[in-house]
Structure formats: C-alpha cells, structure tokens
Design goal:
It is built from nine helices and five strands. It starts with a helix and ends with a helix. The chain has 208 residues and is α/β, with parallel strands linked by helices. Strand 4, helix 8 and strand 5 form a beta-alpha-beta unit. It folds into two domains: 79 residues, Methyltransferase, Methionine Synthase (B12-binding Domains), Chain A, domain 1, CATH 1.10.1240; 119 residues, 3-Layer(aba) Sandwich (Rossmann fold). The protein has a five-stranded parallel β-sheet, sandwiched between helices. Bound molecules: CO-5-methoxybenzimidazolylcobamide. The site of CO-5-methoxybenzimidazolylcobamide (B1M) has 36 residues, from helix 3, helix 4, helix 5, strand 3 and strand 4.
C-alpha cells in the first residue's frame, strides 16, 4: 500500500475504494500533507493535464473530483480538530461563475483546524452575498477562491466593493490561476498558494 495507490484511485475514479485506501495510509502513519499533495492533489493535477490534452472530458473530471472528495472526507476531522479559541472569523467562497469546490474546502478545513470561525458560502457566490455575509458575521477576513481565468476578475470587483463601502475586512485570494502579482494588482491584502499558506496569511492579517 502506498500513496501512489491513492493517486491511481483518483485516476480510476474509484469512489468506493478511496476511503479505505486513505485510512490504511493514515493508520500506517503517513503524514496528511503527503497524502494530500502527493496523492489527492497531484492526481487532480494529472486529471487537469489529461483534460487539457483532450484525453478525458468533463464527466470524467467530475468523477475524479468525487473520488478525491471521498478521501478528503476521511481527512476532514483531522484537519478541522482544534482546541484553540477563535483566531478570527473568515468568510470563504468560490467566486461567481466558478463551481470548483475542493481547494476552497481544503482551505476552510485548515483554517478551522487553526482555530478560525469559518463561514463557507459555497461556490458560484455573487458579490452581494459576500458583502452581506461579511456584515452579518462581522468577519475579519474574506477568502476568495477562483480556479478559472475567466472568473478571476470577480476578485478585483470584490476588492473594489469592500474598499468602496468602507469595510475594514481583509481580502485574501487564492486558487490555481491566481498569483501574487495578480493579488497585488487588484489591491488584495494577500495571496496564498495553498491551504497551509492560507492559514499563515490569515494569522498575519489578524496580527497586522
Ligand atoms: Co475544472 N478546470 N472546469 N472542473 N478542473 C480546471 C481548473 C482546469 C485548470 C483544467 C485544465 O484545463 N487543465 C481548467 C481551468 C483553465 C483556466 O481557466 N485556466 C478547468 C476548466 C476549463 C473547467 C471547465 C470550464 C470545463 C468546461 O466546462 N469546459 C468547467 C468550469 C465549470 C465552472 O466552474 N463554471 C470545469 C468543471 C470542473 C468540474 C465540475 C468537472 C470539476 C470540479 C468539481 C468540484 O470542485 N467539486 C473540475 C475539476 C476537478 C478540475 C481540476 C481537474 C482539479 C481542481 C481541483 O480540485 N484541484 C482542475 C485542474 C487543476 O487544478 N490542475 C480543473 C485540487 C485542489 C486541492 O486544488 O483548487 O487549486 P486547488 O486549490 C489549492 C490552491 O489553489 C489553493 O489551496 C488549495 C489547496 O492547496 N487555494 C486557495 C484554492 N482556493 C484558495 C483560496 C484561498 C487561498 C488558497 O483563499 C485565500
């Protein structure tokens, strides 16, 4: 049994076997970061590459995501368990027009594990819902995820809206096509390349 089995299971769209494979690795003492990065996430990257090359199509991409999700469900309690008191409140969501959920959910889990209260608005979230949720929850931070180059502009619109309405919420952005340079260009308070960087960034935004 090895992490490669988990990687291969995503590529086989093996929804029913995934939980067992991940549990075996956990029981063997494999660390969660390796399970995620070398197993589930690396496999989804390969799926994306195969999609780009026209070797598989949307239904298969969706099935691969569902298989990976089964593995994440096993890791969820380990990522979210915390004893610390609230580190701050974060509203998180994937921007309008974008249905990609997995990376955003991973960021949510890690933030929860780090003691943040997290309000997850889901995917395809219109700007007005972000604005309302920030007010209703008196959020300290808003975390925006985008996986498509076509939906990234919604992040700039969100930053402009929060600056325009005088909100003091800190805006952090992330997602595969998002870069530090893009974050700076739109005036976001920070960019995180992965879920653990998102935790460090959220902590430093709370401190600053
Ligand atoms: Co989509 N898709 N997809 N897809 N999909 C990508 C993103 C793509 C790169 C594939 C490819 O062509 N190589 C490509 C985007 C190209 C582009 O715009 N540059 C693409 C496309 C084109 C599409 C469609 C347009 C296909 C079509 O219909 N023709 C369509 C769009 C639908 C829509 O959103 N409106 C589409 C649909 C789908 C599915 C629904 C089938 C499915 C998503 C299912 C789901 O999420 N429940 C799907 C999938 C699975 C993927 C890939 C294969 C995997 C995404 C993923 O979950 N990765 C993806 C290829 C790839 O990413 N290599 C692809 C694992 C996840 C853990 O990583 O989300 O990057 P990621 O999150 C990371 C970091 O980015 C960061 O932390 C996470 C953990 O480390 N992060 C943040 C993310 N959000 C953050 C927020 C933060 C901080 C960090 O807050 C501050």
């Amino acid at each position: 049994m090895a992490i490669n089995d988990i990687y291969q299971a995503v590529l086989r769209f093996d929804k029913s076997g995934m939980a067992g494979l991940v549990q075996v690795e956990l029981d063997a003492g494999t660390d969660i970061a390796s399970l995620l990065n070398e197993g589930l996430i690396a496999a989804l990257d390969e799926v994306g590459d195969r999609f780009s090359r026209g070797e598989l199509f949307i239904p298969e991409m969706l099935q691969a995501a569902q298989a990976a999700q089964q593995g994440l469900d096993i890791l969820k309690p380990l990522l979210t368990e915390t004893n610390s008191r609230s580190a701050g409140t974060v509203v998180i969501g994937t921007v309008k027009g974008d249905l990609h959920d997995i990376g955003k959910s991973l960021v949510k889990m890690m933030l929860k594990g780090a003691g943040f209260q997290v309000v997850d608005l889901g995917v395809d979230v219109p700007l007005e819902r972000f604005v309302r949720a920030v007010e209703e929850n008196r959020a300290d931070i808003i975390a925006l995820s985008a996986l498509l180059t076509t939906t990234m502009p919604a992040m700039g619109e969100a930053v402009a809206a929060f600056r325009g309405n005088g909100s003091r919420v800190k805006v952090m952005v992330g997602g595969a096509p998002v870069t530090e340079a893009f974050a700076e260009r739109i005036g976001a308070d920070g960019y995180a390349g992965d879920a653990s960087q998102a935790v460090s960034l959220a902590r430093s935004l709370m401190a600053g």
